[in-house]
Amino acid sequence: MNLTITRSNRGTHDMVRVGGCIDASSVPYLRQVLFDLFDSGRHRIVVGVAEVRLIDAASVRVLLYLRQRAKDDGGYLRLAGATGTVRQVLEIAGVAKALGIDGGADFDDDGSDAIPVDLDGLRLTGRHWPADVTGELTRLHTGDLDPAASARMRDAIVRSCIPAAQRLAHRYSRSAEPAADLEQVACVGLLKAVDGFDPGRGTEFPVYATTTIVGELRRHFRDRVWSMHVPRHLQELWLEVRRSREELTSALGRSPGVQDIAEHLDLNDRQVAEVIGLGSSFRPLSLNVLTAADDVTIIDQLGGNDPQLGHVEYRESLRVLLAQLPARSQRILALRYYGGLTQHEIADHVGLSQMHVSRILRQALQTLRRRLEEIPG
């Protein structure tokens, strides 16, 4: 592995100087060093990259994540000394400003009192992964063990690695998912890593296991956390929008709007607005949640069935049919059903007998009922 790391404390911040290449095989060690600093309560870190020859896109994403982690804990993570190819990669990726490469020189030093980090020791005897776990797994997968002995060795390896798996799960503890669920998912990833580890590839188990466990955690968030079914491409786009919002907040010095995010991702405003709305699919609000008015819940504001809606068609049809009746029938119906008069009172108004009024009402109602029934359903 072509990587060197040294550490020094500058009072106001910690300096981590890196040399060599930062790529998929080496960035887990840099990440481990930085997480050790986070775990010890030190969140103001400058990473010196003047001696770094190459950095790949996956490592850039790791640095952005670590920067956000430091920021969440009230600190910062900045790069210093980025030049040549490394600087070009950061500028092309659009993260140069977010990682503070232009202001990092103020934190740089000559490294005269820097302490080298023993990467082999970090890898083999670190306090998070058990010592020589790679050797144990090599014996498990390549040794001539009987089934019972193999099962006992596998169980012992898994139990010794559980604390490391739980620590990886705790990185996602800021989510709304219960910590116990995340630890269980991490342990599932650990089992897959133990069973799928291939010693012949020359990869150390902590590196392989970390990738497998983190992948299992991300798969859990992708497939299990959404309370509604959301297509895969929309989930990925939602993650892109969230990452872009964090990057643009640092780059612009303000909270980005929909148009800013749309331009950054080459989308239109409507697509971004719809994707942002997907966030509510994680945890929909309960209908019993109180609104601004303390004594009113959401369900109290939902409309119910209007019994009059079923009569709209008949009322509109009846309006036309009434106009087709004789004028006297229309007047008598209006006095009876809109004026509320009795048949005797109507008879006095129109100058007819009560019996005659009753007959006109009956004939008019029969005519209206017959014509309404003839209307196609």
TrEMBL record:
Domain STAS: 15-118
InterPro entries per the UniProt record, alphabetical: Anti-sigma_ant, RNA_pol_sigma-70_dom, RNA_pol_sigma-B/F/G, RNA_pol_sigma70, RNA_pol_sigma70_r2, RNA_pol_sigma70_r3, RNA_pol_sigma70_r4, RNA_pol_sigma_r2
Alphabetized SUPFAM superfamilies for the sequence: Sigma2 domain of RNA polymerase sigma factors, Sigma3 and sigma4 domains of RNA polymerase sigma factors, SpoIIaa-like
Gene3D superfamilies: 1.20.120.1810, STAS domain (3.30.750.24), Winged helix-like DNA-binding domain superfamily/Winged helix DNA-binding domain (1.10.10.10)
Domain of life of the native organism: Bacteria
Protein keywords: DNA-binding, Sigma factor, Transcription, Transcription regulation
GO molecular function, one term: DNA binding
Keyword Amino-acid biosynthesis: no
Listed GO biological process terms: DNA-templated transcription initiation
Family as reported in the entry's similarity comment: Belongs to the anti-sigma-factor antagonist family.
Protein name: Anti-sigma factor antagonist
Species per Swiss-Prot/TrEMBL record: Dactylosporangium aurantiacum
